[in-house]
Amino acid sequence: MSTASIPEDLQAGVSRVLCFVAHPDDIDFGAAGTVAKWRAAGVAVEYCIMTDGDAGGFSDEHRPDIVERRREEQRSAARLLGVDSVHFLGYRDGYLEPTVDVVAGVVELIRRVRPQIVLAMHPERNWERIQKSHPDHLACGEAVTRAIYPAVENPYAFPELAARGLGAYRVPWLWFFGGPTQLENHFVDVSDHVEDKMRALRFHASQHPDLDRMNAAVRGFLAANAARGGLPAGSSAEAFQVVPVNTEATIAGF
């Protein structure tokens, strides 16, 4: 997609953002700096974690309570950034698929929150760093994509939701992270929020046996993002593919 179709100021008119990720900690790796920037600007942000994270971690001692441990890690990281609402769909870690039931849950939450931006993991595999493309990540992105078009905006899709007062809604923007670098078309300068991001990540202690190595790696990724995005030397950035769904550049209808 040409960046010509992406307005320079994507912050304008944005008051609510809804973020979908596969596991606790995914949002903090991919977009915590951007979330911190949104919150500093007064934008309301909500998270939806699609799996329970039970297959994560490195310690046998954590197995009995790993699900609740990871949920509390995510809640703590969210509170640090000023995010109050964290929704957990509770699907089994490693088994997420873009089924009709999963899509219906995504449609329901988007219609309830009615955000201007939906942020999600990318549905396409990144062959440069395959760890970004856990099967649950791809399933998250695919489920959100299927939900946004056409289901969320189709008044005849999932009529049981409309019967409960959750009518059709047109999402203006869909943001992806973690996908192929050649598809990135928007880089958010998070230089002023790097420490917020790193503090949020440190809450996910069950997932990082070497916090110092994780810290160095993430800072390196942020610097590389900034370089790809053409930001000044010394900057840190998070990278996205921004997709216009219902904007002045798109055709209404389904």
A few lines on this structure:
The chain is α/β, with parallel strands linked by helices and 254 residues long. It is built from seven helices and seven strands, in the order βαβαβαβααββααβ.
What does this structure look like?
Keywords: Zinc. InterPro entries: GlcNAc_PI_deacetylase-related, LmbE-like_dom_sf. It comes from Arthrobacter subterraneus. This protein is α/β, with parallel strands linked by helices. The protein has one domain: LmbE-like (Rossmann fold, 3-Layer(aba) Sandwich). Helix content is 36%, strand content 17%. The protein is built from seven helices and seven strands, in the order E-H-E-H-E-H-E-H-H-E-E-H-H-E. It has helices spanning 26-40, 66-81, 100-113, 135-148, 159-163, 194-202, 211-228, and strands at residues 16-21, 44-51, 85-91, 117-121, 173-177, 186-189, 237-244. The chain has a seven-stranded mixed sheet, with helices on both faces. The two termini are 21 Å apart.
